[in-house]
Amino acid sequence: MFGKDIYWYGVQAVSLLESGKLHSPDHSPVFHIVALLFRIFGVSDETLLGFQILTCVWLVFSVFLSRFLIMEAKKGIGVLSLGIPSIVVFVLGFLYPKQSWALGFLILSIGFSSPIPTLSSFFSKTTLSPSTTSSSLSQSSSSSFLSTSLLRFRLRWIASAVFFLFALWFHPMVALIGFGILVFYWMPEKFYPVIFCFAIILPFLLPQNPNGRFYHDKDIFPLSAAFSLAGFGILGDWAFLVFGKSEPKFYRMRKALAFFGFLLLIPIFHFADIQYRILLSLILLVQVFVPWNRFQILVWTASAGLWIFTLFTNPNQFRYSYEQMWIPGESMAAVPNNGLLVAHHGFCEYYHFQFHKDCLSFEPDTKAISELPQNTEIYRAVYGIRYENLLVSKDENKKPIFNFIRPLGEYQLVREEDWKKYRLLLEKRNSKLLQVAKSWKNPYKERPDFIKRKHTNGI
């Protein structure tokens, strides 16, 4: 399986089928799509893979339809003239399905908001008799053209608004991206430097506390962060987004997208959480407006090659090693008094989906502890630290820290209370293992405030 949170969609959908509500509150209907597929094809990894493929098909359809709507009639409507969407379609479809469904609606909203000469040409053709006078022809054709044009104008803007509302429903962030593009589209270019200066100042105004949804991480620079997340492929597509060109009639839209992409070079928000997702969206959106010619074929080939190279050389950038999780997960789920497991993000969702046991990818907070079933304990799936290191660890009184250790390949199962003592000992000794103990491999932060609000208020 590809994707780093695909099993979360499975967890949400199974909860819908079993209890009629989501495991975690979310207003997006995308989980209902997964639940429908589960109901038809059964709950399995293969169904989740089918959902990812369906998401990619949806993105390709939205890009093709939008290009069809905005292209000129004189260029024809051949399949080749529609071009081939960027390989980012598959990156988005497999890694961020929820965002992808919203992005498809946003792309359609943009397509329907553009002039539609291709469709209008179908309705503008009329057959006239030789006896028709020029005056009657002029009057009838002008009135017919006016009424038809007004009708098409209303219908396409209504369709555009409806698709935008669907984008907002599926993922509000995508709707905000669309609103931002609209602002930059209508904004005179002379104001771009002012916006750029404000963007440079904005990080200093944002909190550095990651408990909020929007926060600044000054330790990560966007270019290096993008490379670490997706290799050279994302850098090449980013360069084309900012410096590429389109036809003159798309100049303003192309300029708006390029400026938006240029702003992402500034470390405004936490890159992996927000800016990276915005960047992928913009890279796909720009595909609607690029001319499909020999140069574009060359750009597409180079981009696809870089993405595929990264996929084969660093597959863990796009997925977790799920095939190594079954045996450890099965053993952990079999522990009788295991009321809650703490593990890293990917393992936690896989464990929850496959074994229907509670798991948390954050440090247990008061809410998690209060919901713990009676006569059970919280366990920790330690990742990245060898069994021998844990076994020989002792406290200041030379007593073993861990009273329970179960080696399970790449993972070690311990009690959460013992793990906290061990991590505190590493901090006192300034051990090199602290970098592993306090990383994504071993969650050490409590749930951010915005997630707590989401569980409490559903927002």
Walk me through the structure:
This protein is globular. It has 2 domains: 6-120 and 150-317, no CATH class; 324-457, no CATH class. Strands 2-1-3-5-4 form a 5-stranded mixed beta sheet. 61% of the residues lie in helices and 5% in strands. The chain has 459 residues and is mainly alpha-helical. The protein is built from 21 helices and 5 strands.
Point out poorly predicted stretches. Answer: 73-80, 116-142
Helix-strand pattern: HHHHHHHHHHHHHHHEHEHEHEEHHH
As a whole number of angstroms, the C-alpha radius of gyration is 27 Å
Overall pLDDT, averaged?
83
Distance between the termini: 30 Å
Report the β-strand fraction as a percent range: 5-15%
- Counting DSSP E segments of at least 2 residues, the number of strands comes to 5
Main sheet: strands, sense, barrel: 5 strands, mixed
Number of domains: 2
Strand order of the largest sheet: 2-1-3-5-4
**Silhouette:** globular
Transmembrane segments: 48-70, 76-96, 103-123, 157-184, 220-244, 256-289, 295-312
Keywords: Membrane, Transmembrane, Transmembrane helix
Key words describing this protein structure:
five-stranded mixed sheet; 21 helices; globular
Secondary structure blueprint with pairings:
Blueprint: H1 6-19, H2 30-41, H3 45-70, H4 79-82, H5 88-95, H6 97-113, H7 117-124, H8 134-170, H9 172-186, H10 192-205, H11 222-243, H12 251-263, H13 271-285, H14 294-313, H15 326-333, E1 338-342, H16 345-355, E2 359-360, H17 366-370, E3 377-383, H18 387-392, E4 405-408, E5 411-415, H19 416-429, H20 434-437, H21 449-457
Parallel strand pairs: 1-2, 1-3
Antiparallel strand pairs: 3-5, 4-5
Helix pairs in contact: 1-2, 1-16, 2-3, 3-5, 3-6, 5-6, 5-13, 6-8, 6-9, 8-9, 9-12, 11-12, 11-13, 11-14, 15-16
Transmembrane segments: 48-70, 76-96, 103-123, 157-184, 220-244, 256-289, 295-312
Keywords: Membrane, Transmembrane, Transmembrane helix
